[in-house]
């Protein structure tokens, strides 16, 4: 079943904890999913549950300019987090036509027959890749991308769930960037990792 892979991946991430190793940790994670790090506007988009499908999407100069505009004037860590949320939403919309992910519903729907759906492994992998892209473009001044984190082990009445993470430079505090709960192209949840991990204990 699809959730078994999520459970195993989440268990290893939970035991390891956030690795505060910055970009290298993020890129190392991408390699475990056979996802090349973004380069020169080239990104690999995971979809159809557990990175079962991967689509290479190229971003043009206009796309990069759109991203840069989102970060103009983001002169503080909170402002940069808000810009990151907008940028992730924008990137989801930009890659959707090529990857076929425009109708992703958000949340848990593992039995849907519709192509182009994303589970939390897809979402966290894509968002990690996007965070690396933003860092490489020089747009992240107050945060660095990190490897994903997880919560939930079934026996605690929470479905296993994984999210992308970035770390605030000044404080070392990890922040989640969680796209999974929302439909394609909507801003992700951005909150401290400890708050996310201690969220209401319930089935997603």
Keywords:
about 200 residues; 4-stranded antiparallel β-sheet; signal; alpha+beta; disordered N terminus; single chain; about 20% strand; two-stranded antiparallel ribbon; 6 strands
Describe the structure.
The chain is an alpha+beta fold and 204 residues long. It has one domain. Helices cover 40% and strands 19% of the residues. It has six helices and six strands, in the order ααββαααββββα. The chain has helices spanning 2-16, 23-32, 61-71, 77-99, 120-136, 193-197; strands spanning 42-47, 53-58, 143-151, 161-168, 174-178, 189-192. The protein has a four-stranded antiparallel β-sheet with strand order 3-4-5-6. A two-stranded antiparallel ribbon has the order 1-2. β4 and β5 (174-178) form a beta hairpin. α2 (23-32) crosses α5. The longest helix has 23 residues, at 77-99. 39% of the residues are buried. Mean pLDDT is 87; it is low at 1-20. Keywords: Signal. Residues 1-21 form the signal peptide.
Short description:
The protein is α+β, with helices and mostly antiparallel strands and 204 residues long. The chain is built from six helices and six strands, in the order ααββαααββββα.
Task: Calculate the mean pLDDT score and round it.
Answer: 87
- Label the overall shape: globular
How many H/I helices? 6
Number of domains: 1
Calculate the terminal CA-CA distance, rounded to whole Å. Answer: 17 Å
Widest sheet: strand ordering? 3-4-5-6
Overall helicity: 25-40%
Written as H for each helix and E for each strand, in order along the chain, the element string is HHEEHHHEEEEH
Beta-strand residue fraction:
15-25%
Task: Work out the radius of gyration.
Answer: 16 Å
Alpha-beta content class:
alpha+beta
Number of DSSP strands?
A: 6
The major β-sheet equals:
4 strands, antiparallel
Instruction: Pick out the low-confidence regions.
Output: 1-20
């Amino acid at each position: 079943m699809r959730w078994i892979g999520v459970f195993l991946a989440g268990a290893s991430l939970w035991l390891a904890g956030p690795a505060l190793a910055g970009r290298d940790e993020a890129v190392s994670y991408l390699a475990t999913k056979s996802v090349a790090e973004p380069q020169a506007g080239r990104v690999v988009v995971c979809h159809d549950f557990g990175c079962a499908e991967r689509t290479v999407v190229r971003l043009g100069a206009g796309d990069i300019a759109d991203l840069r505009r989102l970060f103009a004037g983001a002169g503080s860590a909170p402002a940069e987090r808000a810009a990151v949320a907008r940028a992730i939403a924008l990137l989801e919309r930009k890659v959707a036509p090529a990857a076929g992910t425009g109708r992703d519903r958000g949340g848990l729907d593992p039995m849907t027959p519709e192509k182009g759906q994303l589970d939390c492994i897809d979402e966290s992998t894509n968002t990690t890749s996007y965070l690396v892209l933003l860092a490489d473009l020089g747009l992240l001044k107050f945060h660095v991308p990190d490897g994903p984190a997880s919560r939930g082990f079934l026996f605690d009445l929470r479905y296993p769930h994984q999210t992308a993470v970035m770390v605030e430079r000044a404080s070392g505090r990890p922040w989640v960037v969680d796209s999974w709960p929302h439909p394609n192209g909507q801003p992700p949840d951005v909150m401290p990792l400890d708050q996310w991990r201690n969220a209401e204990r319930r089935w997603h």
